Amino acid sequence: MMRLRGIACAALLLSRVAAQAAAPPVDLSIEVAVVDTSNQPVAGVRIELKTGQVMVSSAVTDPRGHARFAKLNPARYEIAAAKEGFKAVQKSDVDLSRSVPASIELTLTPALARRESVEVRDTATPVDQGGSAPSDLHVHTVTQLPGRPATAADALPLLPGIVRDPGGGLILSAAGEHRSALIVNSADVTDPATGQFGLTVPIDSVETLNFYQTPFLAEYGRFGAGLVSVETRRGGDKWKWELNDPFPDFRIRSYHMEGLKDATPRLNVEGPLIAGKLYFSEGLEYEMRDTEVFEQPFPYNQKRKEGFNSFAQFDWIASGKHLVTATIHVAPERLDFATLSAFNPEPTTPDASTHNYTVTLADRLTIGSGLLENTFSATRFDARVWGLGSQDLIMTPEGNAGNYYAQQGRYASRLGWTPVFTFGACNWLGTHTFKVGSYMAESTDNGQVTDHPIDIQNSASQLIESITFTGGQPFRRWDVEYAFFGQDHWMVTPHLALDLGVRTESQQVSENFRVAPRAGVAWNVFPGAGTVIRAGFGLFYDRVPLNVYAFNQYPSRVITLFDANGQISAGPFLYQNGLGTVNVSYPFVFQEPVAGNFSPRSATGSLQIEQPLTKYLKLRVGYMQSASSGLVIMNTVAPDPATNTGAYLLSGTGQSRYRQLEVTARVRLNDSRELFFSYVRSQARGDLNDFNSYLGSFPVPIVRDNQFSNLPTDLPNRFLAWGLIRLPLGFRIAPVFEYRGGLPYAVTDAYQNYVGVPYANRFPGFVSLDSRFSKDIKVNPKYTIRPSISVFNLTNHFNPEALHGNIADPLYGLFFGQRGRRFTADLDFVF
Predict the structure, then answer these.
(1) For residues 218 and 487, is the Cβ–Cβ distance under 8 A?
(2) Longest C-alpha distance within the chain, in Å?
(3) What average pLDDT values come out for the chain (831 residues) when binned by 10 residues?
(4) How far apart are CA 98 and CA 118, in angstroms?
(5) How far apart are CA 649 and CA 706, in angstroms?
(6) Is the distance from CB of 537 to CB of 517 less than 8 angstroms?
(7) Which of 692, 790, 801, 695 is nearest to 745 (CA)?
(8) Which of 810, 805, 708, 813 minimizes the C-alpha distance to 747?
């Protein structure tokens, strides 16, 4: 009954929000974007706005090529754009008479260019995007939502196909971060050792945030599940700064203050260092956050994260044809009680510290009608994990005791270079835009892992299994990667476009060569109706993180079994670590018969239909299917009876299958009014022993026999709705409603082994309605303050976070743990 009431309440609120969104906007504006013939932004363009013969206003485009005219009256306007070295262009009959904001794009050609015409268009033709259309987030909107994302990664779960697992990691298309790629301004910034994203750039530094599940462009590679692309903000022509959430939140329990809950101030500064030439922007945030684990007793139930995140960007406009961008990202972080959970009290958890340093340099130079881009990047990830004592880790059906078992220290680095050249458009049976490029990188991973013993006890606290460790040495791994690609965006007609390309990749440490053909199509079936059909198919190859090739330097396990009298009943068995050899041939992979010749891959196809229903409402329906093979998994080799020696073998034989049906609707009137609705129906099955579970920063202690089943990340149904709505009297409301089916769980026995089919059962469905109310209060024309209050789980729906899932546990089958209704208050300053 409570669930029905909660869903009814959410539906009522969202219906009222949607009704408010339909109201016409009060403030009219015209957004102007100016690009050159290579589709690069043009700064310093003078824009004049007229109505009839009367000059209304003028502006100069910023480094992003943008200019904005606000607070306009309903009328028909004319826009003129001019800059030295380019032909002037005009756009007439910009219609605001219907009280609707306008957004146009102007393309400037050089004064000496051969082409005598200049293309002026209101929006990009849908087929110009080709067969690879991403899911995107408007950063201005997501920063107003109740979750207040601090980084780009924090905002990603607002997109279909992305959720967070119970441990806090991102799940993209039902796969972990290590199977996806993260690029910032076209530079790879993932951890070379683990493939994880790490601490991403501050959200205030983000200009665009896109997630490609099926990018059928050959320029993208080194992933099998998805690609996250971040473009960062450039400084503007005027200095401005913004301070968000400067005051800490205090923990209130039983009407008494119990210390700080979190402190998350964020500062953003941008402006010109040399007017018209050199621009600067800085996003800086400090985060101290205690996350309460409700299943543990207070005050021993706080997971703490503390660190700062700095992203600085410099943009040098050398000329109208030459732009140089440099970025510096520094992100140290400390984690206390990192794996605290219902069954892991504080003493059993590790502390950790990580440091992420990334420097990039991007050079964009227009050569004739083409564009040459060179991106250089240097990344270093340092990580250290340690337990809180030297006691054995004790595992029982009711929970764990002792101290965390795995300690590690490592540092990994990558030097990368990505040169890309885009040719000018050529005409032959349509219009072709060719692009060629390469990727070259050198990576290293150095460190050592040491492990403490693990004792497995039954419900009577009797020792039934002992795991000790032997050996383990420092490791040093090195790799060189090469990739080359060529692609053609072919506009067959103004309503039909094809993307055709091929990519080759080579990872020296795996001694194989991979070929990835890609093809995509976009067809504007009914131009008058705006219907666009997109389809495509391609091969995608995961990068293999360097920690896979360090596994044989990890400590080996010695397992001993005991009977009810405490006597040895079997063993001890020595399990050595090793790398398997892939002997199965694949048409597009050329490999040497050596250990570790892994080539994880996905064959992915999709079909998508986009249909504008009104000027402000767009509907998208899509189906995607991906078959992955060659995945790196952990297999157990049974001990030889003569020597009692077995092995844990990393092999490239894993498989997975993922299917997804997505329906998305987006209502967007302007930056202050947007609604987003999505429903995803999906299925994910595959081999369970993914290597990342055992080689990551916080590896699981038990190695179970591999099985093919529902993946722990399988989420059959998810409905998500969120938006930003302007209310009367300057108030804003930003609701977020989510329903999803429960995640699957595995049943285990006293030995911590699977019972029956793992992940065949599920947690109860998750329902949550959150909302944030805010109001901008102008202190004077320059200063604005923004107080807000947020409420989470407004319906107080029971969303259990834990389960007694061991059949030897007296409480077996009981769901528990709940984040009830809660409130927070914030205050931001905008200058």
Answers:
(1) yes
(2) 100
(3) 39 40 54 74 82 71 80 78 78 66 77 35 57 83 88 92 87 93 93 90 91 92 93 88 83 74 89 92 93 88 93 92 94 95 95 96 92 96 95 96 95 96 90 95 96 95 96 94 96 92 95 95 86 94 95 96 92 94 90 93 95 90 96 95 94 96 88 86 96 92 95 94 88 94 95 95 95 88 84 93 95 91 82 65
(4) 27
(5) 11
(6) no
(7) 801
(8) 805
SS3 551: helix
Q: Report in angstroms the alpha-carbon separations of 216 from 90, 320, 550, 611.
A: 36, 31, 33, 21
Token pair, residue 735, equals 């609701």
CB count within 10 Å of CB 760 equals 12
CB neighbourhood size of 166 (10 A): 12
3-state secondary structure of 289: strand
Identity of residue 755: V
Structure token digits, residue 778: 């102008």
Given this model, what pLDDT does residue 294 score?
85
Convert 627-656 to b/e letters by CB count within 10 Å (16 or more is b): ebbbbbbbbeeebeeeeeebbbbbbbbbeb
Distance CA 20, CA 252 (A): 35
The full DSSP string for 725-788 is: EE-GGGEEEEEEEEEEPPPEE--B-TTS-B-SSTT-EEPPPEEEEEEEEEE-EESSSS-EEEEE
CB 594 within 8 A of CB 581: yes
